[in-house]
């Protein structure tokens, strides 16, 4: 039963990680927009928080 509870958390982590990579690439391509970097960093942090809280 615990396995079913972890799935949504890991799906949210995967989504946040995908968005983080997408905005990191966007920042590398367009250096004039520093908000892309900060948004990517926030998404990366959220993804790791989700991963580490999935097992709790």
Description:
11% of the residues are buried. The protein contains 2 helices and no strands. It is an all-alpha fold and 56 residues long. The mean pLDDT is 92. The radius of gyration is 13 Å and the shape is elongated. The protein has one domain.
Layout of SSEs?
Blueprint: H1 2-29, H2 34-54
The SS-based structural class is mainly alpha
Query: Into which percent range does the helicity of residues fall?
Result: over 70%
Q: How many strands? A: 0
Per DSSP, the total helix count is 2
Taking all residues together, what is the mean pLDDT?
92
- Gross morphology: elongated
- Unreliable segments of 5+ consecutive residues: none
Gap between N and C termini = 14 Å
Largest sheet: none
SSE pattern, N- to C-terminal: HH
Q: How many separate domains?
A: 1
Strand content: under 5%
Round the Cα radius of gyration to an integer and report it: 13 Å
In short:
The protein has 56 residues and is mostly helical. It has helices spanning 2-29, 34-54. It is built from two helices and no strands.
List keywords for this structure.
56 residues; mainly alpha; 88% helix; elongated
């Amino acid at each position: 039963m615990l396995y079913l509870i972890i799935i949504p958390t890991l799906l949210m982590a995967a989504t946040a990680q995908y968005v983080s990579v997408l905005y990191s690439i966007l920042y590398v391509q367009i250096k004039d927009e520093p908000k892309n970097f900060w948004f990517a960093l926030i998404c990366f942090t959220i993804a790791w928080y989700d991963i580490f809280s999935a097992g709790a």
